[in-house]
Amino acid sequence: MNLIGQQITVLGAGIAGLSVARALAMRGVSVRVLERAPEITEVGAGIQISPNAGTVLRALGLEREFEEISVTSRGAVLRDYRRGADVLRLDLSKFGRFGLVHRADMVGMLADAAREVGVEIETGVSVSEVSLAGEIPVLSLEDGTTREVDFLVGADGLRSKLRAALLGAETPDFTGHVAWRALLPLEPGEVPPEAHVFMGPGRHLVAYPLRGGRMLNLVGVHETGTWTDEGWHHPGDPAEFRAVFSRFGAPVRGWLERVEQVMVWGLFKHAVAPRWQGSNAVLMGDAAHPTLPFLAQGACMALEDAWVLAECLSTMESRSAALACYERIRAPRCRRIVDAATANARNYHLSSAPVRGVAHLGLRVLGKTLPGFMPDRFDWLYSHDVTKTV
Q1: What is the pTM of this model?
Q2: Residue 112 near residue 66, CB atoms below 8 Å
């Protein structure tokens, strides 16, 4: 299908929306991105971009730009929460480059890249409702106006207005997990460039460096019966953060003593959308397949979506065939990733000391005797190249 001259509107100027905007504009589409925030500012914290998403950045012509803003990771290290001792080291380098990057730097890079190919990014546009009653999607804005758009891509995250229009009201399930996120200044080289996962009873903490090793990203998750609101932007109490992880030893304890600001939010399990498309409208990213953060694949799935959607639209004979192709390719893989992330929550939080001891001993033995066994289990994830699937 020839996309030159077509007009597509994208809801959301996050990683999903900006990457699909560039991918479409590179194929001749006139793209407008609508973002509710008044400007694209520094929000969020660290994210991990694995090789399966790196192939998309390469195809988008952004490999060099991404290397400049990210830290190259050596892989992941599973560590004991009390002593910080290594339980299992996962050398994932055989799959390609893993990049540790601040979300704001990633969004800034993608925004520049989108504008470079003619994408219009309109900020301060808050959509209150999407109507799919007719052939043409209609956007109702909070200022009381409406807009008709030829084709709509919903990259508007967990509270997607397009998903609500497609599927109706949904109620996510609270997982019983609460997440904490903080950033700390670092001396370059202070923390090795890899994801450090400290595993404790009913909780774990992930740490890795950002911005040339000058910043440390901390994410702690613990199980609790207390319900906490969903969303990333709830200020938390650093003293409570320290109390929740008070049984963790070095180096976590030292890091937590330096925390001055922390964000906290509840983790909710959302279903992968049973239907991703409607008349001249389609979902992508978190709007289609929200995931728990235990496999570091949220941003990676969004990048994969962006390439596949743009490629299907440019190669299929009709728009309906393209959307069916996109959903057929993406839905099974995204369900597998979401399920694997959910399983990781259980693996990190073994509450029984005897069970945890046996499990950690088994991992240590496995790492020494068969060092390639655990990395090989991720081949389906990290070796996947969506630029070769359409």
Answers
A1: 0.92
A2: no
Beta strands in 237-328 (DSSP E): 262-269, 277-278, 281-283
Residue type, 243: A
Verify whether residue 208 is a known catalytic residue: yes
Task: Pull the structure tokens for residue 15.
Answer: 């990683």
Residues 273, 294, 368, CA angle at the centre, nearest 5°?
135
Q: What confidence tier does 232 reach under pLDDT thresholds 50, 70, 90? A: low
Between CA 367 and CA 65 the distance in angstroms is 35
* Backbone dihedral region for residue 317 (phi beyond 0: left; psi -120 to 50: alpha; all else: beta): alpha
Residue 70, classed as helix, strand or coil, is: coil
Q: Which of 19-33, 341-355, 358-372 has maximum average pLDDT?
A: 19-33
Q: What superfamily in CATH does domain 7-74+101-171+270-348 come from?
A: FAD/NAD(P)-binding domain (3.50.50.60)
pLDDT by residue (tens digit) across 158-191?
Answer: 899 999 999 998 888 888 889 999 999 999 899 9
Q: Are strands 235-236 and 215-223 parallel, antiparallel or unpaired?
A: unpaired
Share of the chain above pLDDT 70, in %: 89
Instruction: State which H helix or E strand residue 18 sits in.
Output: helix 15-25
Residue with the two structure tokens 């290594």:
86
- Tokens 């289609």 — which residue? 288
Catalytic residue among 81, 208, 348, 382: 208
Max Cα separation, the chain? 65
Residue of 156, 126, 130 whose CA lies nearest to 142: 126
Query: Checking DSSP bridges between strand 173-185 and strand 195-200, what pairing results, if any?
Result: unpaired
Which of 55, 137, 135 has the alpha carbon at shortest distance from 99? 55
Extract the tokens encoding 119. Answer: 């994408």
Give the pLDDT of residue 162. Answer: 97
- CA–CA dist 373, 369 (Å, integer): 9
Does residue 181 contact residue 238 with C-beta atoms inside 8 Å?
Answer: no
CA distances from 294 to 15, 161, 203, 217, 239 (A): 19, 26, 12, 15, 24
Q: Using alpha carbons, select from 3, 10, 2 the residue that is nearest to residue 114.
A: 10
Residue with tokens 């030893």: 249
